[in-house]
Design brief:
heterodimer, A: about 160 residues, alpha+beta, nine-stranded antiparallel sheet, 1 helix, about 40% strand, B: about 300 residues, mainly alpha, three-stranded antiparallel sheet, 13 helices, globular
Chain lengths: ~160, ~300
C-alpha cells in the first residue's frame, strides 16, 4: 500500500506538471511575422534498371516566381521507416540548361518509399524533402516515382506524399 | 577534383551527423540495458523530443539551446511517467510494454494537429503529414558542418557525463541492479528510485537526440519513429558492448560507419547486421566492449576501471 501511494503521488504530480506546461505553451504560442521568401521547389523522378536508379529533375523558383539559376543542389535519399540507418550517398545536381532546372541520378538500394531530399545552397538556402514510392519497372521501362500515400510503407505505418 | 572533395565532405558530414544523433539513441537504450531493462520504446522519446523541440523552435521562436533542452525535458518526463506504471515489469513483459507505448506514441503523433499561420503557410504538427518547416538552421545560416560540430560537442558532453557517472556509486548501483536487483536491494540500493532516475535520464537523452534530428532534417513525421529505430538502438548497444558508454558508439560505427557507408554488402547489410546481433547474443551477450574486456583494457593502460575494487 505504501509503495502504491509512493508511485501514485509522483505520477499524479508529473501528469499535472505536464498538463500545466502544455497549457502554458499553448497560451503563449504566437504566429511568426509574414514574408520569409521561401523558394518553390518541384521534384519529378523516374526509376529504371537494377538498383533501381532514380533520375530526378528539380525545378526551383524564387518566392516571386522567377527561375533560380546558379544554385548548388545536392540530392540525397533515405528510407523514412529507417531514418539515419538507410541513406544513400548524396549527388550534386547539374543544370539542364532550362531556366531554374537541375537534374541528378540517385542509385537506390531497393524498391519502396524513399524520402528524396533536395538541399539548395548558393544564392539562397533551402531544404526540401518528398516521399516517393519507387515501383518495380519491367525490362528497360522507366516508371514515374509517385508521391507516397499513407499505407505505402506497410500495414500500420503512416507515410506522406508531400513533405517539406 | 574539388567538386569530388565537396561531394565526399557533404556525404561525410551527413553520415557523421547521423552517427552522432543515432549514438544518443543508442546510449539511451544502453542506459536502460544497464539496469536490466530491454526497451523497444526509446524511439518514442526520441520522437516526442523531436516534436517538442520543433514546437518550441518554430511556434515559440525559442533559441536552439532552449528548444533542445525542451526536447530533452519532454523525453525525460514522458519516460519517467512510463517508468512509474511499468516499475514492476521485467523481461519480456517490460519489452512488450515499451514497444506498445512506442507505437501508441507514434500513432498519437499521427493524430496531433496544432498549426498556426506562418509566413509561408501554416506551421506546426499536421498529423500524418508530419511537422515541416523547422527552419532554425536555414534562418540562422548554420551550415551542416557547423551543426555537426554542435552535435559532436553535445555527444562528447553526454559521454563525459556518462563516463563520470559510471565511476560514481550511482553507476555501480545501476550495474548491480542490472545484474541482480534482489541482491542490489539487499545491499541497500534503492532499486525503484534508481530505475526511475535511469528511465528519466534515458528518455532525456533520446529526447535530446530527437531535438537535434528535427533541426538537422527540418522536418519530422510519425513514420520516422518506427519500432525499427528502437530495435536498432538496442542492437547497437548490444553489439558495441555494455561495459562502457563507448560500446553503443562502437555499435553505431560498425553498422552505419562500416557496413552502410562502405557499401561492402549492398542489399545484404540489414541481414548481416541482424546476423551479427544474433551471433553476439549467443557468443558474447554483453557485446564487444563488455565489462571483462573493459577491465582488462583499464588494467593494461593503468587507468581506473569502474569494475575494479574501490575503497
Amino acid at each position: 500500500m505504501k509503495m502504491k501511494s509512493a508511485i501514485r503521488r509522483p505520477f499524479a504530480t508529473g501528469l499535472m506538471v505536464t498538463l500545466l506546461g502544455v497549457a502554458c505553451l499553448q497560451a503563449q504560442a504566437h504566429s511568426p511575422a509574414s514574408g520569409s521568401g521561401k523558394p518553390q521547389v518541384e521534384l519529378k523522378c523516374v526509376s529504371y534498371g537494377k538498383g533501381p536508379m532514380l533520375d530526378c529533375v528539380v525545378d526551383v523558383k524564387r518566392a516571386e516566381g522567377t527561375p533560380l539559376d546558379g544554385a548548388q543542389l545536392m540530392l540525397g535519399a533515405m528510407m523514412p521507416s529507417m531514418p539515419m540507418a538507410h541513406t544513400i550517398k548524396p549527388m550534386k545536381a547539374a543544370p539542364t540548361g532550362a531556366p531554374g532546372q537541375y537534374k541528378a541520378t540517385l542509385e537506390l538500394e531497393m524498391l519502396g518509399v524513399w524520402a528524396v531530399d533536395v538541399d539548395i545552397s548558393g544564392p539562397l538556402r533551402e531544404k526540401v524533402s518528398r516521399n516517393l514510392l519507387v515501383h518495380e519497372c519491367k525490362g528497360n521501362d522507366r516508371c514515374a516515382a509517385t508521391p507516397a500515400k499513407p499505407g505505402d510503407m506497410g500495414p500500420m505505418r503512416h507515410g506522406t506524399g508531400h513533405r517539406h | 577534383m574539388s567538386e569530388l572533395g565537396g561531394l565526399i565532405s557533404a556525404h561525410a558530414v551527413g553520415l557523421a551527423s547521423d552517427m552522432a544523433i543515432m549514438s544518443m539513441l543508442a546510449l539511451s537504450a544502453y542506459l536502460m540495458l544497464l539496469v536490466g531493462r530491454v526497451s523497444f520504446g526509446q524511439q518514442a522519446f526520441f520522437g516526442l523530443g523531436a516534436y517538442a523541440a520543433g514546437v518550441m523552435s518554430v511556434m515559440f521562436q525559442a533559441p536552439l539551446a532552449l528548444a533542445l533542452a525542451g526536447g530533452a525535458a519532454c523525453g525525460a518526463l514522458c519516460s519517467w511517467l512510463l517508468a512509474l506504471p511499468t516499475l514492476r515489469l521485467s523481461g519480456l513483459h517490460y519489452a512488450v510494454a515499451t514497444l506498445a507505448f512506442g507505437e501508441m506514441a507514434r500513432i498519437a503523433l499521427g493524430g496531433w494537429h496544432w498549426q498556426r499561420p506562418g509566413p509561408d503557410g501554416p506551421v506546426g504538427p499536421a498529423g500524418i503529414e508530419g511537422f515541416r518547416d523547422i527552419r532554425w538552421l536555414l534562418e540562422n545560416d548554420v551550415s551542416p558542418g557547423e551543426y555537426l560540430g554542435l552535435t559532436l560537442l553535445v555527444l562528447v558532453a553526454v559521454l563525459a557525463l556518462l563516463m563520470r557517472l559510471e565511476r560514481l556509486r550511482l553507476g555501480v548501483g545501476l550495474r548491480m541492479i542490472g545484474q541482480d536487483d534482489m541482491l542490489a536491494a539487499a545491499q541497500g540500493i534503492a532499486c525503484d528510485r534508481l530505475r526511475l532516475l535511469t528511465a528519466a535520464m534515458a528518455g532525456g537523452l533520446a529526447g535530446l537526440g530527437g531535438g537535434l534530428y528535427a533541426h538537422r532534417t527540418t522536418y519530422i513525421e510519425p513514420a520516422v519513429f518506427d519500432p525499427m529505430l528502437g530495435v536498432h538502438a538496442v542492437g547497437y548497444a548490444l553489439l558495441g558492448g555494455l561495459g562502457t558508454a563507448f560500446g553503443p558508439l562502437l555499435g553505431v560505427m560498425l553498422d552505419l560507419g562500416l557496413l552502410d557507408a562502405s557499401r561492402l554488402f549492398p542489399g545484404w547489410r540489414m541481414v548481416i547486421f541482424g546476423g551479427l546481433v544474433a551471433l553476439f547474443l549467443r557468443w558474447r551477450p554483453r557485446g564487444l566492449l563488455d565489462e571483462t574486456l573493459v577491465h582488462h583494457l583499464s588494467h593494461t593502460f593503468h587507468t581506473r576501471s569502474p569494475f575494479s575494487n574501490r575503497q
